[in-house]
Write a structure and sequence with these properties.
Elements: H1 11-25, H2 32-39, H3 53-64, H4 77-94, H5 114-126, H6 130-156, H7 170-177, H8 182-201
Helix pairs in contact: 1-2, 1-3, 4-5, 4-6, 5-6, 6-8
Length: 202
């Protein structure tokens, strides 16, 4: 099969090649040159379609977040929020280095913007005022992404940092002794989010 050159390449070709490399080698080894090599072309051929690695990263995130099943609205905004949060967390934790691609804004692409639309729907059904909806969604999203990054780091270094001396830091020792699995901590955080929204909406 002849190799595609320059404009004959498609953006989707490039994104799919980048996704394979991300899964195989991780983000640090993902370069425009490595993507070009994966496709059997020279790096300049990619620049017909993407500006640089950062631009490719946004397209790649949009690709990797596709087909994420958040479930249909149930009429219970609390359950919908929990289900969406768990679905997004699983994708962020299970897809290699995707947390490093997470965009700074909400709208990196047509597929990645879908959680925003669905999340704002949850806030609307909960009764959150329009002038607070983006703030409420942003708090929830920041928690989900932050927790996913924590889990990824924890899995990469399960031993973690050495605990400080208990005689000097008794409160830290007390908390560490009662620490539960990360999954339980995520549910605890969701409980706090839901409780905070409920209190805010009274």
């Amino acid at each position: 099969m002849p190799r595609k050159l320059g404009p004959q390449l498609t953006r989707e070709d490039i994104v799919q090649a980048a996704a394979r490399l991300l899964d195989r080698n991780g983000y640090d080894r993902l370069t425009m040159r490595s993507v070009a090599a994966e496709l059997g072309v020279q790096a300049p051929a990619l620049y017909w379609h993407v500006k640089n690695k950062e631009d490719l990263g946004l397209l790649l995130f949009d690709h990797l977040i596709d087909n994420l099943d958040y479930g249909a609205p149930s009429g219970d905004w609390r359950g919908d929020l929990r289900r969406m949060a768990h679905a997004l967390r699983r994708r962020l934790v299970e897809t290699r280095d995707i947390t490093r691609l997470f965009p700074e804004d909400y709208s990196s692409g047509p597929r990645a913007i879908r959680p925003l639309e669905l999340g704002l729907g949850v806030m609307r059904r909960a009764g959150v005022p329009a002038d607070e909806a983006l703030h409420a969604y942003g708090v929830a999203l920041s928690f989900i992404v932050g927790w996913a990054r924590f889990e990824v780091t924890r899995r990469a270094n399960p031993a973690g940092a050495a605990a400080p001396p208990a005689d000097l830091f008794p409160n830290i020792a007390w908390a560490l002794a009662g620490q539960q699995k990360p999954e339980n901590g995520f549910d605890y955080g969701l409980d706090l989010l839901v409780a905070g929204l409920e209190r805010r909406l009274r």
